[in-house]
């Protein structure tokens, strides 16, 4: 039996490339199965399947190089379905969201139905660049609306792997919203075991100062192959970052990456350098991105305005869709600086 999702052992992101009509059914099946493992109740797994089917069908009919990403919510209990493409984009997004609108002679219930079914729905489209949409469905009706907005993530295994050696988590504590991105050395099950070990250690120490969290992870990872780790904390007016290995942090502004921070060389669990915290001033509404080296770092050199304009819910999938190294595990995590 497939294991259920837990905070310390989250499922990786499932990617379904929509390159054939049969992929629409596959996306719906993956969404339903993931919903059940995420603890969605009653008719919600079927709702998740319907949402995935509608988004995938829209990609098949109108887009090119489209994919659906299905995953547990990073913060909160529930499921997220993200669709990204490199299609022509929508000239009039509001019209496309209206029930009854169609350009293919169908009933035209797709995006309007998705917006009604999802507990949270975010979509952006730009002519010539493509469309990205995120539909979130809470685990229960009681939990609807409780998942935190302003966060987003993808965590993809390398092509050909069933286990993901990357992992990420976000926790809210009295010390501020704190996030971790982990990249277990190598691929497959041993790397995934290191990543899960790091998440368990992070949960036990996430309210501590960032250097103390890093030392806790170092002790926990001594009997694994080790990992690269990036720790981020959002505080009023500033972001703190502490990283070791091949994890990068980037602070975005509306028109360009404002600041990039590399991590110190080393391997958490094997040769930990003295943890060093770097701070950067932040403004409400800015995005902070933390990602593993499965996402090419060149994305931040001169990103197009269409990418910079994406909200936190959509940016990680867009980065993975356009800048992922498919032979490596890849994780991107985004947080919005709170107002």
What does this structure look like?
This is SpoIIE family protein phosphatase. Pfam families: SpoIIE. Residues 148-337 form the PPM-type phosphatase domain. With 339 residues, the protein is α+β, with helices and mostly antiparallel strands. The protein has 2 domains: 14-138, Histidine kinase-like ATPase, C-terminal domain (Heat Shock Protein 90, 2-Layer Sandwich), CATH 3.30.565; 151-336, 4-Layer Sandwich (Phosphatase 2c, domain 1), CATH 3.60.40.10. The protein has 8 helices and 15 strands. The protein has helices spanning 22-37, 44-62, 93-96, 110-117, 188-205, 210-220, 305-308, 315-323; strands at residues 14-18, 66-72, 78-84, 120-126, 130-138, 151-156, 166-173, 176-184, 227-235, 238-244, 248-252, 257-262, 278-281, 287-291, 330-336. The strands form 3 sheets. The chain has a 5-stranded antiparallel beta sheet, sandwiched between helices. α1 packs antiparallel against α2 (44-62) and α5 (188-205) crosses α6 (210-220). Mean pLDDT is 89; it is low at 100-108.
Record keyword descriptors for this entry.
Heat Shock Protein 90, 8 helices, 30% strand, alpha+beta, single chain, 339 residues, 5-stranded antiparallel β-sheet, Phosphatase 2c, domain 1, 2 domains
Describe the structure in brief.
The chain is an alpha+beta fold and 339 residues long. It is 26% helix and 30% strand. A 5-stranded antiparallel sheet has the order 1-2-3-5-4, with helices on both faces. A 5-stranded antiparallel sheet has the order 6-15-14-11-12, covered by helices on one side.
């Amino acid at each position: 039996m497939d294991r259920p999702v837990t905070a310390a052992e989250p499922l990786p992101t499932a990617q379904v490339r929509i390159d054939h009509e049969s992929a629409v059914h596959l996306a719906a099946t993956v969404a339903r199965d993931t919903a059940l493992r995420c603890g969605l109740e009653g008719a919600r797994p079927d709702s998740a399947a319907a949402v995935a089917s509608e988004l995938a069908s829209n990609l098949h009919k109108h887009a090119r190089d489209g994919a659906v990403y299905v995953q547990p919510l990073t913060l909160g209990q529930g499921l997220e379905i993200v669709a990204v493409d490199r299609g022509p984009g929508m000239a009039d997004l509001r019209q496309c969201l209206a029930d009854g609108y169609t350009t293919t002679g169908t009933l035209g219930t797709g995006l309007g139905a998705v917006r009604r079914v999802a507990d949270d729905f975010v979509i952006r489209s730009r002519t010539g660049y493509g469309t990205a949409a995120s539909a979130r469905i809470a685990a229960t009706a009681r939990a609807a609306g409780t998942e935190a907005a302003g966060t987003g993530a993808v965590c993809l295994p390398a092509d050909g792997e069933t286990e993901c050696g990357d992992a990420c988590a976000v926790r809210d504590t009295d010390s501020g919203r704190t996030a971790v991105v982990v990249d277990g050395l190598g691929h497959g099950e041993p790397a995934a075991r290191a990543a899960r070990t790091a998440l368990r250690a992070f949960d036990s120490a996430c309210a501590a100062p960032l250097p103390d969290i890093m030392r806790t992870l170092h002790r926990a990872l001594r009997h694994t192959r080790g990992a690269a780790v990036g720790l981020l904390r959002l505080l009023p007016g500033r972001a703190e970052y502490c990283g070791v290995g091949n994890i990068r942090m980037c602070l975005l502004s509306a028109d360009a990456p404002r600041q990039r921070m590399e991590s110190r060389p080393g391997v958490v669990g094997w040769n930990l350098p003295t943890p060093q915290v770097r701070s950067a001033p932040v403004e409400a509404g800015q995005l902070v991105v933390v990602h593993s080296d499965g996402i090419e770092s060149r994305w931040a050199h001169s990103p197009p305005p269409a990418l910079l304009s994406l909200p936190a819910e959509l940016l990680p999938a867009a980065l993975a869709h356009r800048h992922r190294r498919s032979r490596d595990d890849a994780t991107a995590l985004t947080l919005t600086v709170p107002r």
